Amino acid sequence: FLGVMPAYSAADDALTTKLVTFYEHKKDSSVPSHQATVLLFDPRNGSLKAVLDGSVITAKRTAAVSAIATKLLMPAFAEVLCILGAGVQAYSHYDIFTELFTFKEVRIWNRTKEKAVKFANSVNGPVQVCSSAQEAVTGADVIITVTMATTPILFGDWVKPGAHINAVGASRPDWRELDDELMKNSVLFVDSREAALTESGDVILSGAEIFAELGEVVKGTKPALPEKTTVFKSLGMAVEDTVAAKFVYDSWSAGN
User: Fold this and answer.
1) Which tens digit of pLDDT belongs to each residue from 198-231?
2) Alpha carbon distance 15, 239 (integer Å)
3) E strands, 111-242, where?
4) How would you label 8-17 residue by residue, b for 16+ Cβ within 10 Å and e otherwise?
5) The domain containing residue 158 runs over which residues?
6) What DSSP element (H or E) covers 197?
7) What's the number of domains the chain is made of?
8) Residues 204 and 249 in one domain
9) In this structure, are 126 and 224 located in the same domain?
10) From CA 104, how far away is CA 80, in angstroms rounded?
11) What CATH code is carried by the domain that includes residue 213?
12) pTM for the model
């Protein structure tokens, strides 16, 4: 797939387009499934100001949004973090989640165990490599799914009541990471209703009702409900890339 994600933020005085290629690698590859470039334009006249590495921006902004959702939606006493998947997004999520939150235990599972072991040996803290997704998920307070799964790998009867799930993979209308039971018995938050109802197989195929957009919770117009089992379905929004790219560009400019 080749995605084109244009956005303009008046508040940030920023105009960008992200070009992202997405290849479903049939075998484990040294090349990431998603590769991206962000073009930053001058909103006053349309001239190109910068070309930025969109892969780094995508990894960091996606994890940052998941962290915001988790700060708002996770249970009051969250001790166990579980990550399903061991790709680029697993690393970026691990970095920000261990920086912002204090977990007593971090677990990881990946379809190919070698990648999970490599992950555990690469990061800066102790990570328990689990032999099954169910083992990783059981008793976890916060769960992050960052896989290339096309059918469910996370099931509702495994999930601890009151847990919070960040569902980041399965970005196509016919792909799933979460089963119907989990989708229907959780309070569902999304980044964009419009996107979720056209792009997310987890939302479309389960028929789950969207409770709120994350922005509504941030603004205080919808409650967070951290005492409930919650799912944040993340698809990513172009404006997130715009704000992140402008932040990077301004930081670089200030250094000149």
Assistant:
1) 999 999 999 999 999 999 999 999 999 999 999 9
2) 9
3) 128-129, 142-145, 164-167, 187-190, 210-213, 230-233
4) ebeebebbbb
5) 58-237
6) helix 193-199
7) 2
8) no
9) yes
10) 6
11) 3.40.50.720
12) 0.94
